[in-house]
Amino acid sequence: MELNTAVISGASDGIGAAFSKVLIQNGWEVIAVSRSKEKLNKLKSTIKINKDNFKPYACNVMDFNKLNSIAKEINTPKLIFLNAGIYKPIDSSQNNLDVYKDHINVNYLGVLNCYEAFLPKMLLSEEGQIIIMSSISGWLGLPKAAAYGPTKAALRSFGQSIRYDLNAKGIKVQVCSPGFVETSATSSNDFYMPGLMKVDKAAELIYKNMKSDKFEFSFPLFFSTFMKIFSLIPDKLSSYIIKRNIG
After folding, report:
1. The whole model's pTM is what?
2. In the chain, where are the structural domains located?
3. What HEC string does 56-72 produce?
4. pLDDT tens-digit profile of 180-220?
């Protein structure tokens, strides 16, 4: 019996690593893409069942040619999980131009590289699913997120746009916009993170929601609902409350 194949970028750490494990446990073949060969091999050593279904590929998402070569040698993916990204909290009053550029290159252009490399086979099969990892910080500007947040807003808009073309070709598109998840990235935050969630729980929720008809899903429920309301109310009020409670 042929396994369903998932391509996961940013697979060696955080949500990508946790979601890879969930898929493996549920009988998927995972094409795990990450810059770090060492981290990929370490992750594989922790997988208890179906270990051989985890296929590590060390590749920077900025290297389109290598991504394209990987795409040519793997099975047709049923899922493309666009997750690779970086996060660095910044003081916007300082000079951060290089940090802004790094976030755009990895979080947005890197996602487009993976999308363009792995989509063609899926289009030929006329079935499959794409999940784009955005963030609640893509809904409205949050403290320290001037480098990260705009890239996640761009990904959300990208997902909203591509669904019109891809749905017509049998491909489901979803955007996942989580709140704070306990990863190495969020460990650099020095402020209170409401609703901070364990990464394994986040991965389980992604697996549950990927089977739903929702275009966008978010968690944790209370904080994401809270932030969705804040994205709709007058800016003067929302910015005041965010400053008091997060900033």
Report:
1. 0.92
2. 5-245
3. EEECCCCCHHHHHHHHH
4. 787 666 656 666 566 678 999 999 999 999 999 999 999 98
